[in-house]
Design brief:
Elements (H helix, E strand, L loop, with lengths): L13 E5 L6 E2 L2 E2 L3 H5 L1 H9 L3 E5 L16 H11 L3 E4 L8 H4 L7 E4 L6 H4 L3 H8 L4 E4 L21 E3 L1 H15 L5 E5 L4 H11 L5 E4 L1 H10 L14 H13 L3 E3 L3 E5 L7 E4 L8 E5 L1 H12 L3 E5 L12 H15 L4 E5 L1 H9 L8 E3 L3 H8 L4 H4 L3
Helix pairs in contact: 8-10, 8-14, 11-12
The structure holds 3-phosphoglyceric acid and magnesium ion.
């Protein structure tokens, strides 16, 4: 893998820079900008080298259609303030753009292409789209480790058409995760939560041989509860996961890895509701499971207590509503307490997890914090991520 910071001749070069600026945005306002802060070093590096920067990023999952609510505009504005420099957001159809159209006035050293997932070609890893993107620049930099598990055009295919380099944050993340996977101390506990069930549920089986405990919370836990015969009301779940879950429990027996899932939950009738504790047999048809209950918190804390290493991806509940933030908060508190006494090695990852940790001012209380969620888990699985493979 070639790193961009080893490159000398970047003066006036147009750099296509893939970033993951998929930050939480509510009513047009960024609620957590940690992912933006993390890529400031690569921006500052390229500015200093007098490169011209074309940023490619995505927000959300617009599925190949223009969606005004998922514009990169608020992100551009946030970055403009952070680096004290004007940024042009190019909204024109990318297919109509030519290299000469990008930097037409000397005011701008950075331009943004609008949300790359507005183009259906992106997620298809489309060859012509990648070729066209490549024609806009002189070289490509991937500083989006957290998207590198996606074989998408602006992450993977594009590297076939431009000299391609790893960015500073991507290198930092890989080095840290390499260390985690090679120097790890047992017992190891992995906590998996969040709402992207389809991204994560298939990974668990492959993680089982590597961990002593896997704690499943958040959206995915609903699938497990349902599989075990509990009603989950209106809660989110993924369809057709029974075989995967069967496999998870069978594999866990063969590898003496404990799978832990909620024993009680906090529910509401809507996402904005107050929270109410419920036993698993009390969940009504119109309930939404939005957090773990106190018995579950106690159980998780006992497991963390006996662990030497804990890797955490994905919140335990819908923490955006403070009524459902307690589970996530208690997990964080327990890990941080052990970490302060040097009794545990802790890594946390994922967009929502870091947003939560930032909210409670705890980003520095973990040994390492990764911007990546899905990519972090796939890396732990031992997979070569498509975006990384493409750089090698
Ligand atoms: C993330 O937030 O994990 C990355 O931006 C990837 O998003 P995706 O799961 O929609 O591909
Ligand atoms: Mg995310």
């Amino acid at each position: 893998m070639n790193n961009i910071q080893d490159q000398e001749n970047l003066n006036k070069k147009i750099v296509l820079l893939r970033l993951d600026l998929n930050v939480p945005i509510k009513d047009g306002i960024i609620t957590d900008s940690t992912r933006i802060d993390k890529i400031l070093p690569v921006i500052e590096f390229l500015l200093k080298k007098k490169s011209k920067i074309v940023v490619i990023s995505h927000v959300g999952r617009p599925k190949g259609k223009v969606n005004k609510d998922l514009s990169l505009k608020p992100i551009c504005e946030n970055l403009e303030q952070k680096i004290n420099q004007k940024i042009k957001l190019i909204k024109e159809d990318i297919f109509k753009l030519k290299k000469g159209d990008l930097f037409t006035d000397s005011k701008h050293q950075i331009v943004f292409l609008e949300n790359i997932r507005f183009y259906k070609e992106e997620e298809k890893n489309d060859l012509n789209f990648s070729k066209h993107l490549a024609s806009l620049a002189d070289l490509f930099v991937n500083d989006a480790f957290s998207c590198s598990h996606r074989a998408h055009a602006s992450v993977s295919k594009i590297t076939e058409f431009l000299p391609s380099f790893a960015g500073l944050q991507l290198e930092t993340e890989i080095n840290a995760l390499k260390k985690v996977t090679t120097e790890i101390k047992k017992p190891i506990t992995c906590i998996i939560g969040g709402s992207k069930i389809s991204t994560k549920i298939g990974i668990i089986k492959n993680l089982i041989p590597k961990f002593d405990n896997i704690i499943i919370v958040g959206g995915m836990a609903n699938n497990i509860l349902n599989y075990k015969g509990n009603s989950i009301g209106k809660s989110i779940k993924e369809n057709n996961c029974e075989t995967i879950i069967d496999d998870i429990f069978k594999t866990s027996k063969n590898h003496s890895c404990s799978i832990i899932y909620p024993e009680d939950v906090m529910v509401g009738k809507t996402m904005k509701d107050k929270s109410k504790i419920k036993e698993l047999n009390e969940i009504a048809n119109d309930d939404l499971i939005l957090d773990i209950g106190p018995k579950t918190i106690k159980k998780i804390n006992d497991i963390i207590e006996t662990s030497e290493t804990v890797l955490w991806n994905g919140p335990a509940g819908y923490f955006e509503n403070p009524n459902f933030a307690n589970g996530t908060y208690e997990i964080a508190k327990k890990i941080i307490k052990k970490n302060k006494n040097n009794l545990i090695y802790s890594v946390a990852g994922g967009g929502d997890t870091i947003a939560f940790l930032n909210q409670v001012n705890a980003l520095d209380d973990f040994n390492f914090v990764s911007t990546a969620g899905g990519a972090f888990l796939e890396y732990l699985e031992g997979k070569e991520l498509p975006g990384i493979k493409a750089l090698n």
